[in-house]
Amino acid sequence: xxxxxxxxxxxxxxxxxxxxxxxxxxxxxxxxxxxxxxxxxxxxxxxxxxxxxxxxxxxxxxxxxxxxxxxxxxxxxxxxxxxxxxxxxxxxxxxxxxxxxxxxxxxxxxxxxxxxxxxxxxxxxxxxxxxxxxxxxxxxxxxxxxxxxxxxxxxxxxxxxxxxxxxxxxxxxxxxxxxxxxxxxxxxxxxxxxxxxxxxxxxxxxxxxxxxxxxxxxxxxxxxxxxxxxxxxxxxxxxxxxxxxxxxxxxxxxxxxxxxxxxxxxxxxxxxxxxxxxxxxxxxxxxxxxxxxxxxxxxxxxxxxxxxxxxxxxxxxxxxxxxxxxxxxxxxxxxxxxxxxxxxxxxxxxxxxxxxxxxxxxxxxxxxxxxxxxxxxxxxxxxxxxxxxxxxxxxxxxxxxxxxxxxxxxxxxxxxxxxxxxxxxxxxxxxxxxxxxxxxxxxxxxxxxxxxxxxxxxxxxxxxxxxxxxxxxxxxxxxxxxxxxxxxxxxxxxxxxxxxxxxxxxxxxxxxxxxxxxxxxxxxxxxxxxxxxxxxxxxxxxxxxxxxxxxxxxxxxxxxxxxxxxxxxxxxxxxxxxxxxxxxxxxxxxxxxxxxxxxxxxxxxxxxxxxxxxxxxxxxxxxxxxxxxxxxxxx
Length: 635
Description:
- By secondary structure, the chain is of the alpha+beta class.
- The chain folds into 5 domains: about 1-200, no CATH class; about 210-335; about 335-450, no CATH class; about 460-580, Immunoglobulin-like (Sandwich), CATH 2.60.40.1930; about 580-630.
- The protein has helices spanning about 1-5, 10, 20-35, 55-65, 70-75, 85-95, 100-110, 120-130, 135-150, 155-160, 170-185, 190-200, 205-235, 240-260, 265-295, 300-315, 320-335, 335-370, 370-375, 385-390, 395-405, 410-415, 420-435, 440-450, 580-605, 610-630; strands at about 460-470, 490-495, 500-510, 515, 530-535, 540-550, 560-565, 570-580.
- Strands 3, 4, 5, 7 and 8 form a 5-stranded antiparallel beta sheet that branches. Strands 1-2-6 form a 3-stranded antiparallel beta sheet, with no helix packed on it.
- Helix 6 (about 85-95) packs antiparallel against helix 7 (about 100-110), helix 11 packs across helix 13 (about 205-235) and helix 18 (about 335-370) packs antiparallel against helix 20 (about 385-390).
- Keywords: Coiled coil.
């Protein structure tokens, strides 16, 4: 430690409690030695300390540094005093190079002891020795001993031994000066956390001052960053998103550091955190409003939402948190505005269509009951005309034009990215109903197809997968994957999830011929199965249960595909092969070969066989071959 190794008392070759007379005497002696070129040494050039080169300039500076009382006190705290016989004995051991013995002597007077008029010098001396060590634990002991001395009532006695008796000192101020000196020595050597740990055994006054010292710079930086952001935002609201993200990035480390030092209940920390949150929130509001006014095409709402969520993450006080939540809620409503608008419009179209259909059918029913010719069977209802009237009861041209205007690519993307799952399901059902019932469906079909190509926002990624084969009780079938043993074919997805999300997963089983394997009764339209899942950060496997039959394999021989869809967007495909066991396949192939041989024999000319008989015999064998081939393909 430089404060000890380059201590002016050390350079002067004296102890810190030397009298003014002794100091002058030593100064005169050194000057004489210097004039004749004689080597200057001192008994206090302890062997465990570094050797020093005493030049005239170094010597002059050393004596100059101990002229003033305040300087004497500070430098004495990083050197030794000899105030009693115990000190004298210990210092003699230092002179002979036995530092451990000196520590042992002073330790008996200080270990777990309070500072008194008889041992205050021991606290200073042992503290100096510990500060010279490399071990952080020993340095910590040295700091504790020094602070204990400084904070004691006997510190004034210590001051009197190293400075004028008339010198008055502010004890708390001296603690701060001492700490400042230590922090200068530790800078670049220890992290803040480790430095704080070195002072962890010290009193509350020390801890408070340390906190102040370590927090001054980050507090100033945070306050400056907030002020700069406010000024820039006021002048240029259109770039408030950048200003806000810069503010967050430029204060994140400082705010985290403050929290680690003073805790999240500290009033100053809470005030600074809330001020950052408030400025971030205002950046969010100004940026959204300005972007809306400028009719920007970029996704400014999403960026405003990011700022709002950053504000929420920083806010500490409940009032500030509440305001950030309100802002997020307002933006959420704006985010889903188009979804709700188009859903309401489609719902109104469907309701109008239903009302028109009901009125037309009521009119037809009235005619059936009142028209004499219809009742007598001389006239019939033209049901094609009735259905055409129902379909034409809506101005589909206007509907299409409005949908094209509302459902732009940008708005379709916003709808797909919405977290309102039920609202999105309703939108999908309504747009598909409109596509099915519209007389001008090509426009709507293009919108539907475009929506299907937009990938949904998912909180998980698929890492790998495995095809499963289970029985009716979802128990794994351990036998090899052949027709004889295939029952319910499912899929397990190994995933990495980073959030919580509710999703409906649709499965599409594609046969080798490209047709969809589905149940007319239970399957969703255009899919085989669907199931709702709640994905959490703990989710590692998504188990998509099997599809098939408990008694027999319902899968054709060949390559099958399982396609996985979320929000009608294909996120994954898995293929699997279906075939008979080799022996069974050989048997079935042999049967077909025998039947084909039989067919060739039947097709040969035979005397006295009628043409009709031959045709029937050929047809019968061909039917057997057809069935055998279907069996081979498991159709």
